[in-house]
Design brief:
Four copies of one chain form a homotetramer.
Chain A lengths: L1 H6 L11 H29 L7 H25 L7 H10 L9 H24 L10 H16 L13 H7 L4 H33 L5
Helix pairs in contact in A: 2-3, 3-6, 4-5, 4-8, 5-6, 5-8
Protein name (chains A, B, C, D): Aquaporin
GO molecular function (chains A, B, C, D): water channel activity
Family (chains A, B, C, D): Belongs to the MIP/aquaporin (TC 1.A.8) family.
């Protein structure tokens, strides 16, 4: 059972033979999410000088990410047979787009990033992975998208002054040439936030059901 | 049956042995909601001087609360086996974040708070607790989150001039050190609003079904 | 069958003995919708001088109405056993809140109101009343709420300059003391829009299924 | 099987005898979508001089299109028995409303349009057409609407400076009298984007299931 916490997904996902198909579907999902998420930040920068650092700019970023992540999770869930594992991947992408504000400080941004990743990954576990999710699985992609939208309304002003206007789509998708320290902060924080959920959820909530219903799907 | 109106939930919730697990899940849900709700108010205060008292500020507060409460209800519903009881808890949190405006007056704010809590708790009863809810239970968490979002667009300008910028996350979660009279107003109003729903819903709508279908789940 | 077009609902609704209970539930639903819808307009008027006549003011009005109507439909659908009949009632309320702009002219406002009511009532028919609605019934309340939100983004600037700041909640709920000509325009237009849907939908789409599946529920 | 990629829908749709009824339902759906989508652009132009080219203007356009397309898909899906084929039709309408910015250049706008149409059509395939879609079909109309909303937050500032204020509803619905080159760009780009999805999805994801489950519906 602890292996599942590390594998970060359901074990039967890896028995699926169509790994290439699932990979293509995941790539398209991620592309659609990054296109809308990062692209809306670029659009704001084009329209205004300080757009992302205003309440309206936060709203645009939040709605763009919430709607696009909801769709990205929906379309990959259907195609790759439930292979919903946006935890690390998308958590990292969300992190990418923010550079932490000088005035906020490294550790504040670090803790914020852990908290926001925790919220995202916990939502994925509770609504999309947990066998006890029931009919709320129908709205799981919406929940996963909207928690990111809600958190951007918080973190957009704190872990960074804004969505980074210097981050072009090409650089995100091709060279990953971002200032290295920021990069490491968000990856590390995302992995820590995700790992905390993995341990908490698996030992506290998952075992509970598996003991009672060992043959459930 | 009247005991159920007081217990403020389904009686079988209390037969569940995993009370600690449910408690942890409820705490995480509440934390995720408060983080986005209160945090978005702090973010607005950081970006602008009077952000929350503008239409855009209201929108940010409404969307942050709506999205985060929807997610908070979704994830606790799944884990604690349907233990959706955000009525008093979350109603109180929503209340906390608003201080009533001097110009509005005590009784206006008091009545507003009762009305808004009534709307929230009634929505919880009708979409998540009522056995007659049918397939609309799927969207119950969305409804619960969105009614709070809609009401913030009303109450944010009336029961208080804004989301209280002086209310830090730490103070909310740790010391609860808020001006006491406001505190009492919102707790009292929330409890009254919740109690009205309990009585109205239970005697008018719940009995109706239980008499006809005594063996239904 | 044509009687159904006039009765404006499903015939079995009227066989339900608990008419008083359904009436109370409908009243609460309508109250919650009007509170958020009209109240958000009042909030905008308090915060800004011309709030409702700005793009942000339109957004606040659209989101408040969309979220609140979605919730209002959800909670009445569950309690009164599917008694979703917001067609005339809510269409009229939406109309109330707008006064038509002098520059737009009577007939333009009249046609706009018919078109917007048509969209609302058609959505109610297609997603909540039509027996062929299938599993999209789950999201019917969201669709009903959101089409009103979308149309407010259009009509808020045309059929009236704004949400009427002079329309207090008390006057809406108690005296209905609104300038009579406006009142008549919106009631008449709403009834025409609703009637068009009733005829179109019933003869074109409803009969089709009833002929093939006379014993369907 | 490749014929399905060209027919751009499910083959059994064409066996449905009620083609006229389906046509009327599709027309009403499209009308409701264009009314809110184009109309919100006109409303912005009335309220402000450069509304659509501001972040708030983008938000209004995004929410109006997202909500209206969600509803348009919902109501046509129910009536015409699952005849959800907004791919070319709606993709083209979305394209219509934007004129590409001089500063962006022909090829950038062209590629943007292909990418955005790809996202829309892919979402339609994955959530509404694919037999493997499961219970996520319930939220398919929301996903289809929201991906357009998210992409407008990106493309509204790039493929055109704004929603074209000169595009009156009458011209859209009656004469289609738009500057021809723009017209051709968006139609061509939309068809290319849609065709790419048709090939990718059909050969990569559809065959997979049909081989294993040849008798599935």
């Amino acid at each position: 059972m602890p292996i599942r916490a590390i594998a970060f997904g359901r074990s039967d996902e890896f028995k699926h033979p169509d790994t290439i198909r699932a990979g293509v579907a995941e790539f398209i999902s991620t592309f659609i999410f990054v296109f809308a998420g990062t692209g809306s930040g670029l659009a704001l920068s084009k329209l205004t000088n300080d757009g992302p650092a205003t309440p309206t700019g936060l709203m645009v970023a939040a709605i763009a990410h919430a709607f696009a992540l909801f769709v990205a999770v929906s379309i990959s869930a259907n195609i790759s047979g439930g292979h919903v594992n946006p935890a690390v991947t998308l958590g990292a992408f969300v992190g990418e787009e923010f550079t932490f504000d000088e005035g906020v400080g490294f550790w504040n941004a670090f803790v914020f990033e852990i908290v926001m990743t925790f919220g995202l990954v916990y939502t994925v576990y509770a609504t999309a992975i947990d066998p006890k999710r029931g009919n709320l699985a129908t709205t799981a992609p919406i929940a996963i998208g909207f928690i990111v939208g809600a958190n951007i309304l918080v973190g957009g002003a704190f872990t960074g002054a804004s969505i980074n206007p210097a981050l072009s789509i090409g650089r995100v998708l091709v060279s990953w040439n971002i200032t290295l320290p920021n990069h490491l902060v968000f990856w590390t924080a995302s992995l820590i936030g995700g790992a905390i959920v993995g341990f908490v959820y698996d030992f506290l909530f998952m075992n509970q059901t598996y003991n009672h219903l060992p043959t459930s799907a």
